Amino acid sequence: MKRSMKGKSIRLSAACAAGIMTLMLAACSSRIKTDENLVSSDDDDVKVINLFGPMEKSKPNVNNIARTAFDLTIEMAEQELNLTVRYRTYTAENYQEKTYDDVCLDRVYNNMDDLYLLNPDTIQILGVEDKLLDLSVLESAKNLRDVVKTANTVNGKLVAIPQEVVAHGLFVNKDMFDQYGLQLPNTPEEFMECCRVFKENGIETPIGANRWWLENFVFAQAYAELYNGGNTDALVEALNKGQAKYSDYMRPGFEYLKELIDKGYIDAQAAYTYEAIEGEGPDFLAQKTPIVMAYWGAANSDTAYGKHDFNLQVIGFPSKLGQMPVVSMTGYGICTGAEHLDDTLAVLDIILSDEALKVYAETNKVISPSKNVEVECIDALKPLNDRINDNVYVLGSNAGMNVEQWGNTCLIVRELLNGATVDECMAAFDKLQEEALNK
Fold first, then answer.
1. Which of 82, 126, 271, 323 has its CA 20 to 30 A from that of 407?
2. How far apart are CA 358 and CA 162, in angstroms?
């Protein structure tokens, strides 16, 4: 089982650019060349810091909301500090040979850049190896939500901070629920009953699924109490020491997914081949299926679920503690060997300030990592937003866990879709944990 996060595809990211800049990092099969499309930094007359990320600066007259929002905050730093942030990046057409994660690791190890936009597994690896600076020294870090600190703290150090919190939820057609007299589900049992009613009333596949996001069902059930019971640190420490097993947490969620598949509520064969939104999206928008899963920004994006002809509601995944948002986290990290360390810290402090984060969040209509920045969301997102504001969530990525969560769980769920038994899936988690303990 590969260690690196294998999240959303580059194709999906291009289609859903608005509000999902963070997800553009994740590419299960994507490859990029390390020596092409990198911007030169030969201009010695200009004070420069170098940023490595997945995208270039926006070109004039190009409507790219996610990148424009980031560019706006970068411009704030450039103007205040009288320097230039130079993007070193790649174009999607040339991804070959190495994953984005592998390239990031190589560049950090060789001190090639100052600032990096990193995936969760890369944050974890570099944090453990003390390759990333502790960002708790930033003034802006004082304003962070607890969820951000929990997700990106390794060995007591806050090693990465994002510009947005990416929350995943169930996108439901409330009109179809109303048609059959169904309340929006809170628990796994209530959700299963809704699927039964839909199936018995002729809806062939109640849940539109893809090969990337079914792990959210598992996370919601596996970690609801771990993250909401008041003793998260102790429980994570028990996992990291081998005193508790990841497989014991994961088993109920995998058994639940297996039941959904066996009862025909999820088409495993289709889900195994579907790209996110591209596969199940048309049936959801055509009101042929009442339930899909996606990230927060998809509700705002016209290329995803922003255009619909029904009452859309976005709720948390079913858990024993009710509707549960699942949060994944990328983040900006500074290499400890950064050539322009002080200037890079100053830039990051500005783009993560409440002022800059407000610009970013209002432009992208996303959840801010700052507890001081609130953005009015559309009505469809209010159920999910309310839970997050109440500090109710589970993490799909946690750099403090010694087994990377998001990518590994995604890959093991795919094995389930491809016919693996729950016991075989649990054995895969046990193997990952054993490997982590032996490092």
1. 323
2. 13
- 35 CB neighbour count, 10 Å cutoff: 6
Question: φ, ψ for residue 16 (rounded to 5)?
Answer: -120, 45
The Cα–Cα gap between 13 and 219 comes to 23
- φ and ψ at 151, to 5 degrees? -70, -35
- The rounded distance, in Å, linking the Cα atoms of 99 and 97 is 7
Residue (of 291, 306, 282, 328) closest to 378 by Cα position: 306
Contact 161, 152 (CB under 8 A): yes
Closest residue by Cα to residue 98 from 54, 32, 47, 23: 32
Give, in order, the Cα–Cα distances in Å from 340 to each of 23, 49, 85. 27, 6, 11
Q: Which DSSP category does 369 fall into?
A: S
User: d(Cα 57, Cα 416) in Å, to the nearest integer?
Assistant: 40
Give residue 188's identity as a one-letter amino acid code.
Answer: P
364 Cβ contact list (under 8 Å, min separation 6): 18, 19, 21, 65, 66, 69, 164, 297, 300
> With the C-alpha atoms ordered 352, 332, 11, 216, is the resulting torsion angle positive or negative?
negative
Q: How many CB atoms lie within 10 A of CB 96?
A: 12
- Identify whether the C-beta of residue 115 lies closer than 8 Å to the C-beta of residue 336: no
Q: Please tell me the pTM assigned to this model.
A: 0.83
Q: Are strands 331-334 and 115-118 parallel, antiparallel or unpaired?
A: antiparallel
Q: Are 215 and 406 in contact (CB under 8 A)?
A: yes
The alpha-helical segments, DSSP class H, found in 99-210 are 100-109, 120-128, 146-151, 174-179, 188-200
Which pair of tokens denotes residue 197? Answer: 């009613």
Residue 302, judged by CB atoms within 10 A of its CB (0-12, 13-18, 19+), counts as exposed
Per-residue pLDDT of the chain (439 residues; tens, 9 = 90+): 333 333 333 223 222 323 334 343 443 333 333 333 344 444 456 789 999 988 766 555 555 555 688 999 999 999 999 999 999 885 544 445 678 888 899 999 999 999 999 988 899 899 999 999 999 999 999 999 999 999 999 999 999 999 999 999 999 999 999 999 999 999 999 999 999 999 999 999 999 999 999 999 999 999 999 999 999 999 999 999 999 999 999 999 999 999 999 999 999 999 999 998 999 999 999 999 999 999 998 998 888 999 999 999 999 999 999 999 999 888 999 999 999 999 999 999 999 999 999 999 999 888 999 999 988 899 999 999 999 989 999 999 999 999 999 989 999 999 999 999 999 999 999 999 999 999 8
